[in-house]
Amino acid sequence: MSLLEVIAVSKSYSLDAPAVRDVSLGIEDGEILCLLGPSGCGKTTLLRMIAGLERPDQGRIMFEGRDMGKVPPHERGFGMMFQDFALFPHKSVRENVAFGLRMQHMATPELDRRVVAMLELVDLARLGERQVADISGGEQPRVALARALAPGPRLLMLDEPLGALDRALRERLMLDARAILKRVGMTAIYVTHDQTEAFAVGDRLAVMNRGQIIQVGKPLMLYQQPATPFVAKFLGFQNLVNGFVDEDGSIVTPVGHFILRESEPTPGKTVTLLIKPDIEAISENSQAVPQPENTIDGTLDAVIFRGRYLQVWVSVQGYRLLFEEYGDFPFQPGDSIRLTVSSSQLLLYESLPQ
């Protein structure tokens, strides 16, 4: 049995737009689960129901085998960390971390030891007496995390905790956040709309859309096998093209014909093909040689330097496709090129994108 079980939970604020629809989910002891999805998909509503700040219209939330339905938020023993950090600017770093412990009426000697331990955990021991208003934007989320962890919650919920930070700072702190949570063995639910952040922090990801969980799995599994076109697009894949299955089992699309080695699609089916961005080969397209299977003939739109690799944008029959190239690239925008893709880089969905 999972430590936390969400069983067929639904919540509506209006009749025509349920915020959460029939969600079931389990979280193991010591696991970090990331709820990933666009704004308005139901992530925060689900988090608030687990916290007890909202009541489900249907379903149950179980923790350690106990139904939480009638347990008020302050008796659940859960902690929360918010995007705005909710720190007290007129108090010191130490006083902020001690706040939850004072609410527990912890004895002063034990409280002092706990605060010191938490500040050391988040590498802020030297700043204990500094006012919150005087610390940096990278130090404030560490204070908020220390304050959330100080009372020893049985479950920690983090709602877009790094969402207000710039990209460089967020990428540094997301790794630190995971390391800190793992160091103390904390079970956590981490809400984010950023797939990079989710990949870096989560042991598992639950992708949400329109109030439902679309796919749950480990980051590598989701990246390799996104279950739907929506998940693929949300994880950053650009190349989704419509087509149909020919009588011989090949996939006919406006950008080319493709063979999937490990798939036997149904002839006549309308499908969506995901072409992952890895290129097997690239050459000049003289149009003298007929287009083979698993190739794409197009016009090079743009080449963008991204440090370790180049982003290659190609226009093909109304589609603008994105690929990545890690070697020498002798072509210029406007060139006619032929891309060869491996069948291992193709995924087929027997439905159109949602």
Into which percentage range does the β-strand content fall?
25-35%
Helix content: 10-25%
Strands of the widest sheet, in order across it, are 6-7-8-3-9-10
The general outline is: elongated
Q: How confident is the prediction overall: mean pLDDT?
A: 92
Which H/E pattern describes the elements? EEEHEEEHHHEHEHEEHHEEEEEEEEEE
Computed structural class: alpha+beta
> How many strand units?
20
Q: Distance between termini?
A: 34 Å
Radius of gyration: 25 Å
Taking the sheet with the most strands, its summary is: 6 strands, mixed
Specify the number of helices. Answer: 8
> What are the low-pLDDT stretches, counting only 5+ consecutive residues below 50?
none
Core attributes:
alpha+beta, 8 helices, elongated, 5-stranded antiparallel sheet, 20 strands, 354 residues
Structural commentary:
The strands form 4 sheets. A 6-stranded mixed β-sheet has the order 6-7-8-3-9-10, sandwiched between helices. It has a 5-stranded antiparallel β-sheet with strand order 13-12-11-14-20. The model has no long low-confidence stretch (mean pLDDT 92). The protein has 354 residues and is of the alpha+beta class. It is built from 8 helices and 20 strands. A hairpin with a 2-residue loop joins strand 9 and strand 10.
Summarize the structure.
This protein is of the alpha+beta class and 354 residues long.
List the helices and strands and how they pair.
Elements: E1 4-12, E2 18-27, E3 32-36, H1 43-51, E4 58-63, E5 66-67, E6 78-81, H2 93-103, H3 108-121, H4 140-149, E7 155-159, H5 167-183, E8 188-192, H6 195-201, E9 204-209, E10 212-217, H7 219-224, H8 229-234, E11 240-245, E12 251-253, E13 256-258, E14 270-275, E15 281-284, E16 295-305, E17 310-316, E18 319-325, E19 336-340, E20 346-349
Parallel strand pairs: 3-8, 3-9, 6-7, 7-8
Antiparallel strand pairs: 1-2, 1-4, 4-5, 9-10, 11-12, 11-14, 12-13, 14-20, 15-19, 16-17, 16-19, 17-18
Helix pairs in contact: 2-3, 2-4, 3-4, 5-6
